[in-house]
Amino acid sequence: MSADYYVRLEQGRLRNVSGAIVDAVATALRLDEAERTHLHNLARPARQVRRAGRPQQRVRPSQQWLLDALCGAPAYILGRGLDILAWNDLASALYAVDLGALAPERRNMARLIFLDEGVRNLWADWEGKALITLGGLRMHAGLYPDDPRLAALVGELSLKSPEFRRWWADHPVWRRTHGDVRFHHPVVGDLTLAYEAMALPDSPDLSLVTYTAQPGSAAEAAVHALAGRSAGPTRQDVTRRDHPIAAR
């Protein structure tokens, strides 16, 4: 296989490439599971189908009810391009950001991680979190190569964040669905939480992300303290979370 053939494959300029060929290329390059999936996304002929238009991103009321029922766990739903479509009050408290006060187009995990100084300072290992976030964004870029909002987001982050610009050029791809995260929180101090990211079965574009603490730990007490601070009259009308962002 020539270098030119691989470049055209990676850029999606080859039609009707069989899955066997893509698997052979992935094996030859010793790609991990996430990188192999990304290569299949780039090569699949369904790119023409995706150009035809996509529905607006929405969460069902029952999905918001689920988030609100997780009163002891910060939780949110991510959509295409890592847009934050819905969340519970504890997620806002954990990130020390009033997500409801942000315009829908500004509620984006990659934008918060790379451009919001307060959110950036939350992470004990900001670089690790930033690389995982960037790798996930590249997975989305492979799935939606003709998405103008996603292209605009990548352009904005490249312009405003030197780290993003440098790392994006390295073409990293990651899909991490669980792990532990250490936070330096401005209110409750240091805490370690476990996160889980789960695709919603009937909405493959959406992922539910939760943070939980080990029972009986100081981190659990810290989360309870945050829950107490986030409850009460500061809660905003849930309809603002069910507001769809522009179609992609």
Explain this structure to me?
- The chain is globular, with a radius of gyration of 19 Å.
- The chain is of the alpha+beta class and 248 residues long.
- The chain is 45% helix and 15% strand.
- The longest helix has 18 residues.
- Strands 2-1-5-4-3 form a five-stranded antiparallel beta sheet.
- A hairpin with a 2-residue loop joins strand 4 and strand 5.
Task: Give a brief outline of the structure.
The chain is α+β, with helices and mostly antiparallel strands and 248 residues long.
Strand order of the largest sheet: 2-1-5-4-3
**Whole-number average pLDDT?**
80
- What's the SSE pattern? HHHHHEEHHHHHHEEEH
| Global structural class | alpha+beta
DSSP strand (E) fraction? 15-25%
The biggest beta sheet, please? 5 strands, antiparallel
Which key terms come to mind for this protein?
globular; alpha+beta; 5 strands; 45% helix; 248 residues; five-stranded antiparallel beta sheet
Break the fold down into its secondary structure elements and pairings.
Blueprint: H1 3-10, H2 19-28, H3 33-43, H4 47-51, H5 61-69, E1 75-78, E2 84-87, H6 89-95, H7 109-115, H8 117-120, H9 126-143, H10 148-160, H11 162-168, E3 178-185, E4 189-200, E5 203-212, H12 218-230
Antiparallel strand pairs: 1-2, 1-5, 3-4, 4-5
Helix pairs in contact: 2-3, 3-9, 6-12, 7-9, 10-11
